[in-house]
């Protein structure tokens, strides 16, 4: 999974192929957003991308792999949060996740997850996206520990689950219309959540020096 | 919405009608679990219930109303938690929610919600089920306040959102196979979550007398 994408990235001398790949990934997203998982076919994607079916099959063995790859390819904007302070990192992290889910493509990862769970299929996209979110949080916490902040090893996974869980429910309540929530509300909602949960992350519950303002 | 069900309950002298209603609701659930929302039709439900289409249309104007009603009719086991202690109430409440979502019918409410959000439809079932969960939590907190426990009005909605959100993500990670999690693990997971979040619910963060064991 994802090997097609990686392979393409490693072939800078073949722009035409990489081009077709990007066109296919873009077409796959559009096809999914328009038709949902049930109406999603390799045929439809190939037609939309203006390539032959065999070009698609060269890179992706089946529709599920293509669907998951295309969603993942558009879900890059999660990682790499580093403001230098734990509180601000967590606010940025949760704002990223909220923005990610408010975007139809980001929301598609949640929808694919729920569909996979409902049909008892392996939720590949779920695992991949959830792993990426958790890894991003793990990096933030590791850096905080490196700076000398005392992260509670017992609570940390559970606090992140509460943070991401609350944000997921917020999106379900708000809907994904772009105008339901603006940047100011996103920042406010994430700050409230982080300020409430932060003491649970720290040993003995004291706030760290750099976020006690 | 839901009026068909209520009306039937008010007609104890007409068991045959109530019977057909229950058969239709049961058939609708089975039809949904087998075919998903896209394959769900009034026709299919009527055939499965062994009634005429007109019998279904007498009570439900369209397939969406029937789908939502049938899921809600099976989602009764959420409310009425009252152990006499806030901590135990919250543990029971979250265990109920976890069990609810692990059940395919309960999980269907989450799936319908996600599908409704994705297609920008009004997530009727979402609103109804979320309201019911929130009402149950509200009752628990009101009773705690009546007993003299100092509930923090600023954090309470957010804490419940974290609790329910973390449980929702847990189900997405576990899947809904009945054997992925037993009663002991459910109790343990919910106790851990509640014990972590409980101080945030209380004014000044002190644990209440009756839960400090």
TrEMBL record, chains A, B:
InterPro entries in the cross-refs: Homeodomain-like_sf (IPR009057), HTH-type_TetR-like_transc_reg (IPR050109), HTH_TetR (IPR001647), Tet_transcr_reg_TetR-rel_C_sf (IPR036271), TetR_C (IPR011075)
Domain of life of the source: Bacteria
GO MF annotations in UniProt: DNA-binding transcription factor activity; transcription cis-regulatory region binding
Entry keywords, A to Z: DNA-binding, Transcription, Transcription regulation
UniProt DNA-binding region: 41-60
Domain HTH tetR-type: 18-78
Protein name: TetR/AcrR family transcriptional regulator
């Amino acid at each position: 999974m994802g090997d097609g994408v990686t392979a393409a990235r490693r072939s800078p001398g073949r722009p035409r192929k990489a081009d077709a790949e990007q066109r296919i990934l873009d077409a796959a997203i559009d096809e999914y957003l328009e038709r949902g998982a049930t109406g999603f076919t390799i045929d439809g994607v190939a037609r939309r991308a203006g390539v032959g079916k065999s070009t698609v099959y060269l890179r992706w063995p089946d529709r599920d792999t293509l669907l998951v790859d295309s969603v993942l390819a558009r879900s890059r904007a999660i990682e790499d949060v580093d403001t230098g302070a734990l509180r601000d990192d967590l606010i940025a992290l949760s704002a990223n996740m909220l923005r990610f889910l408010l975007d139809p493509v980001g929301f598609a990862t949640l929808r694919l997850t729920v569909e996979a769970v409902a049909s008892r299929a392996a939720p590949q996209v779920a695992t991949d996206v959830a792993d990426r979110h958790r890894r991003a949080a793990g990096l933030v916490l590791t850096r905080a520990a490196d700076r000398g902040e005392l992260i509670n090893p017992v609570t940390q996974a559970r606090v992140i689950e509460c943070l991401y869980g609350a944000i997921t429910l917020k999106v379900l309540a708000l809907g994904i219309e772009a105008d339901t929530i603006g940047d100011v509300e996103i920042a406010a909602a994430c700050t409230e959540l982080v300020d409430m949960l932060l003491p649970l992350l720290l040993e003995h519950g004291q706030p760290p020096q750099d976020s006690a303002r």
